[in-house]
Amino acid sequence: METWRPLVLVEGADGADDRLAALRADPGVTVTDRLDRQREELRKLRPACPPELLEEPPRWVYYPWRRTAVRLLGPQGFRRLRLDRNRNKITLEEQEQLQTRSIGVVGLSVGHAIAHTLALEGLCGHLALADFDHLELSNLNRIPATVLDLDIHKAVIAARRVAELDPYLDVSVWTEGIGTGNLDAFCEGLDILVEECDSLDVKLMVREAARRHRLPVLMETSDRGLLDVERFDLDPTRQVFHGLLDGVSAEQLRGLSTRAKAPYALRLLEADGLSARMAASMAEIDETVTTWPQLGGDVTLGAATIAAAVRRTVREPGLASGRQRIDLDEALGGIAEPDPPKHLVDVRVEREPLPDDPLTALAHAAHLAPSGGNAQPWRFVLDGERLRLHREPRASVTMDVAHRGSYLALGAALANARIAASAAGVLGEARVLPDPGDPDLAATLELGRGTDLDLAGLHDAMLTRHTNRQPGTPTALDPSDRTALAEAAEREGCGLRLLDEADTITRCAELLAESDRLRYLSPWLHAEMMREVRWPGHDDLARGIDVRTLELDATELAKLDVARRGDVMRHLADWDAGTALGEVTRDRVGTSSAVAAVTIRGDDPASYVRGGAAVERVWIAAEQAGLAVQPVSPIFLYATNEDERAELVPDRFLDPLTAVARRLRALLALEEDEQFALLLRLSHAPAATTPSGRRPFSEVIERTGVVELAT
After folding, report:
1. pLDDT tens, 442-451?
2. 153: which DSSP letter?
3. pTM as predicted
4. How far, rounded to the nearest angstrom, does the alpha carbon of residue 322 sit from its chain's CA centroid?
5. Of 422, 464, 472, which Cα lies nearest the Cα of 447?
């Protein structure tokens, strides 16, 4: 047996039990068995391991140089558990790709740390280690060995350390080093070659061989973190060393003294790029220092850099030829205080007082209506005969398919205006679309001398209507409240579907959480959503969602800070992950007393205007019943067919989105011609902490002519 390779025994295999019994009988051998703990850890992994990993036969691994036998999981379970904490910095798919790689490391002084780091991160399935030298005391400033390893071969020390980390990793050791007689054999079967030897002639020979075998060469020089990448696999005609030693042969470099190598080393490392201390030290070689200096920390950084370069070979964009310096001293010279955190500032949101003029108060009431993302997609024109409600096209976003969400908001605004008109005794006829001469006109409320006692009775509740996203306590709805909610929708010619059983609420919560996940993972929807979120003290609160109204605790706010990042969402989208992105919605809906869906027949603008009026009536009725109300908008809310859903999310998420839409419709028992107007989460919850902001009323109102009652 090689002096660096452990003995691996499969329990129950021929001869294994006898060998194990002999080891147990040897008083000089330590036997360690912690398999149960390993299996317990394996069972706890998420996602759960397949049964074949849990049932894989264990192994006994004997390390002769330590006189120790250890019981371990089988190779598949061992690697799955050992490398689990790599995720998702290295995905499972990337790990599988990397474990097919064979990497050769030439030079096991600097190369020792590199080989160990490659094994530590699971970046290869085979390591070939080559050196000819034995460990000396002067090596212990940069090789992570011990005084107990003195005079042991450097490649053997490295191989033993790797074996103690992962006994299943295939390692070959070339104790004779690399030369003209074995260089081609060493390169055979490799995918990447890491060169870290001291001899310039060997460096040149290694690259010439790599070029013949079309292998990429990586080298890290431990001064200012210099990394060299030579992709001979992509371009076998490129010059070695980037052409920096053009015209120099290996024969010219062979056998040179350290001082004689200096001019070539300076050409290779670029004199202007050396650290000042390194450059000064090179002038002192053979005078006050024996050779060029190297630090253990720089070597460790180099190992991390090589590992990053290897990871980059399986990622986009790939790894290009060239060189890069990763200078920690230079980076530390730029140390600075971090930006102050974006704390929540206690900015008071003031609502404008009611206008004294009862007619102006109609438009003011309309301005208090709810809208998706608090976009307030309206402008109002008040003249002597009517209040006209216009759509504001600039307020639309991707989820506002065919402007249906905007029309819904204008329908709620119309309901508020009618309520205020009834209370003031100036109610006239309401007309909903169309007006061919004014395509942005959504509705008109004529001024008259009428009233509607039912509407007038909603006036005070309409003025205080608000969103409440506080967690609730699931409590059954009173039957009379269920009736009142249904009647409120019916008065506007719309329907109401109600989920108020724990099982259906939970299923609804899961579907809405999945919709939120897909919203976060769709780049354009994510960007629009984050633009909606406003931070008091930093953003204008007149539009959008004041982050305080989300009623998030400190942990949820911290998660939102991460979820705001588009680059993070791109990774989660690539992995089809991000279940936690819907966690707040899942929890909030899960604490509801009911989920109400206001529904309409038809998908034209007028239907959504009527649906908006119904939503406002249901919302007010719910608050009158003592319920907290939160609108919940799945991203497909206003997409009524497959083509429209396809515009919302990337292609790979269309099928999951369609499945969620169909399951939610089925859960609510919607009929074929029935569409969502809005979903409302109804709960018994504490009072909301912060009201939503509003644009200044003067920005949304326009007066023409003399405003007075029609005769």
Report:
1. 999 999 999 9
2. B
3. 0.86
4. 30
5. 422
